[in-house]
Amino acid sequence: MILAQEKLTELLQAYPPERQHTLAVFQDIQKECGYLPKEHIVAAADYLKVPLSQAYAMATFYHTFSLTPRGKHVIKVCDGTACHIKDSKGVLQSLERLLGVGLGGTDADGLFTIETVACLGCCALAPAMQIGEEYYGNLTDEIIAEVIADYRRREAGEVVA
Amino acid sequence: MTVNLMIDGLACEAAPGQHVLDVARQNGVEIPTLCHHEALAGQACCRLCVVEIEEASGSRDVVVSCTYPAKEGLKVSTNSEQVRRLRRTVLTLLAERAPLAEGALPAYCQEYGVTGYDLRFTVDKDEKCILCGLCTKACAELGNSAIETTLRGVDKQVAPPFDEPPAACIGCASCAEVCPTGAIACEDADGVRTIWEKEFELLRCEACGKPFATAEELAWLKERLLDTELNLAYCPSCRGKMSLKDLT
Ligand code: SF4
Ligand code: FES
Questions:
Q1: What gap in Å lies between CA A131 and CA A121, rounded to an integer?
Q2: Contact check, Cβ <8 Å, A53/B160
């Protein structure tokens, strides 16, 4: 989703035009758009008076930023040490079966994108994943299927309502 | 004020804080370097310039000479067996990263007997770049900040934004000039310079007639240096030969 000029200007002008605010601006853009659209990176660099090469370097350096559109819900499968040992790979495989796409992919409905993170910081719940602001732990194939079905039901419900 | 130090048994004088590499070179002692450039000092990332030191206090260490400051009573050993062994390791890793690097890197590999390395650490067998960062620094300081290192970890590379021909590039070729491994393609042919997939018309020096700069580069310089039009019509080498009177 690309922001309207007015909305983008408002977002940018929440910060003084200085390079130190680049990451904060990027975070705000990503929150609105789900990713960093090229034209917004260009506009941000221009506003913050940062060379485009450096803005682009920052956007590609941080794992948290995506330069391609992502699904409505980003699933972050934890692949930290504890989750890795507790078979985070199995979680990925289970999601892959359910969504028909692999790591880094977005499903056909544009609903989910599958990513991994180094550690969610809730090792006691391993294997764990995060969707939006929600955490899901002690994952099994059944629990994962339930969680995904639940999101799908809610999305369908939203469309009806 | 000067400090006195010993480099390979040779008594040397240095300004305090002057880098050991500098002092060594001034005294005719050669130390191999890849990421060092006099105009763009402080990269200190290739690690080829390692030397052994012993401080006046007696403590010993291995340091990179290109950024290590000269101190009173320092003893430096630039070519010991340990130093050569470390350099072989550094060269092996760099050569494995950039198998197609040109120039000093393959030459040093030969000099240090680094051959037939396996390609365990090779990500791209066509790679020439050792990621020393000289090009991006040159671009930021001498050019128009058109290129940067992008991505991270094993994917890190030097690239223009969005991997497209960079709008900011003025065709000055500073990047290609400082690159120690010939990793940046730049071609001057028939009065046209091709770099970063952009083409620039080369202007000729009004004195010697040799192509020497792009129009974009001169316009950019003029904006910043407020130089006279006449001055910029000549190449740096002709400009150097002319008296102040000829230039104005
Ligand atoms: S392209 Fe050349 S100058 Fe630039 S980082 Fe790579 S090796 Fe260094
Ligand atoms: S020349 Fe000193 S680290 Fe590269």
A1: 15
A2: yes
| pLDDT band at residue A161 under the 50/70/90 scheme | very low
Its ipTM equals: 0.87
Same structural domain, A36 and A95: no
Q: Is B70 on the interface with A (CB under 8 A)?
A: no
Pair (A83, A149) in one structural domain:
yes
For residue B44, the CA-to-ligand 1 centroid distance in Å is 13
A86/A121 Cα distance (integer angstroms): 15
Which has the closest alpha carbon to A119: A74, A88, A160?
A88
pLDDT at B229 > cutoff 60? no
Q: Are residues A103 and A29 in the same domain?
A: no
pLDDT tens-digit series, residues A22-70: 999 999 999 999 899 999 999 999 999 999 999 999 999 998 899 999 9
Show the tokens assigned to A49.
């008076």
Please state, in angstroms and rounded to a whole number, the distance separating the CA atoms of residues A127 and A89: 9
Q: How many domains does chain A have?
A: 2
Q: What is the mean pLDDT of chain B?
A: 92
Do residues A78 and A149 both lie within one domain?
Answer: yes
**Structure token digits, residue A101:** 């796409």
B183 lines ligand 1 (CB under 6 A): yes
Mean pLDDT value across residues B193-199: 97
3-state secondary structure chain A: CCCCHHHHHHHHCCCCCCHHHHHHHHHHHHHHHCCCCHHHHHHHHHHHCCCHHHHHHHHHHCCCCCCCCCCCEEEEEECCHHHHHCCHHHHHHHHHHHHCCCCCCECCCCCEEEEEECCCCCHHHCCCEEECCEEECCCCHHHHHHHHHHHHHHHHHHHHC
Q: State how far residue B52 is from chain A, nearest Cα, in angstroms.
A: 35
- Considering only CB atoms, A53 lies closest to which of B147, B151, B152, namely B147
A53–B146 CB contact, under 8 Å: yes
- A37 to chain B: nearest residue by CA? B162
B130 within ligand 1 shell (Cβ under 6 A): yes
Closest ligand to B46 CA?
2
Residue B173 has pLDDT above 90, yes or no: yes
Q: Answer yes or no: is A52 within a domain.
A: yes
Residues of A in contact with B144 (CB under 8 A): 51
List residues bridging with B14 in a β-sheet.
Answer: B3
Amino acid found at A43: A
